[in-house]
Amino acid sequence: MALSYSIDVRRCRVTVTATAQPTFDEWVQVHTAFLRDPAFKLGFDLLWDRRAYRTAPDRGYIEQVMTWWREHRASLGDGRVATVVPDDTPAAYGMARMAEILGRSESSLRAFHDIDQAVHWLDERFEPDAAGDGERHPGRRG
């Protein structure tokens, strides 16, 4: 499979890593798997790391993804979604931006070329560790 995921409970984040363009069925399988994972909590952020491949999905694929996302929104919560694409693939970035536009009313979704910028954007919605417990605490959205 072209996709894998990991869950970082301390950072309230799921990271999906793609090594090749997944089929829509593969995409659904990995997203369904992390939703069922006991470590996943409603509202976790999603970091979609697709820097390892340079092909761009077509519009139909993006529309399928966004339809699935809308249908499963209650299970996902209000976490942010950052998609990171390689610098040298303007078409892939353009399709990630299309998803951003199509998903505007459903979620806070952004496209990035730089993984550090994506992580910073995901992290900025959390308050500093005011409780002193080493955990992130949702705060106001930036």
Descriptive overview:
- The chain has 142 residues and is α/β, with parallel strands linked by helices.
- The protein has one domain: Transcription Regulator spoIIAA (2-Layer Sandwich), CATH 3.30.750.
- 37% of the residues lie in helices and 20% in strands.
- The protein has 5 helices and 7 strands; from the N terminus they run E-E-H-E-H-H-E-H-E-H-E-E.
- Strands 1-2-3-4-5 form a 5-stranded mixed beta sheet, with helices on both faces. The protein has a two-stranded antiparallel ribbon with strand order 6-7.
- Helix 2 (59-71) packs parallel to helix 4.
- The model has no long low-confidence stretch (mean pLDDT 81).
How would you concisely characterize the structure shown here?
The chain is an alpha/beta fold. It is built from 5 helices and 7 strands, in the order ββαβααβαβαββ.
Which features would summarize this protein structure in a list?
single chain; 142 residues; alpha/beta; Transcription Regulator spoIIAA; 5-stranded mixed beta sheet
The helix tally amounts to 5
Overall pLDDT: 81
Structure class:
alpha/beta
- The spatial strand order of the largest sheet comes to 1-2-3-4-5
Strand content: 15-25%
- Outline, from the CA principal axes? globular
Poorly predicted spans: none
N-to-C series of helices and strands: EEHEHHEHEHEE
- Name the CATH class: Alpha Beta
Radius of gyration: 15 Å
In total, the number of strands is 7
Number of domains: 1
Helix content: 25-40%
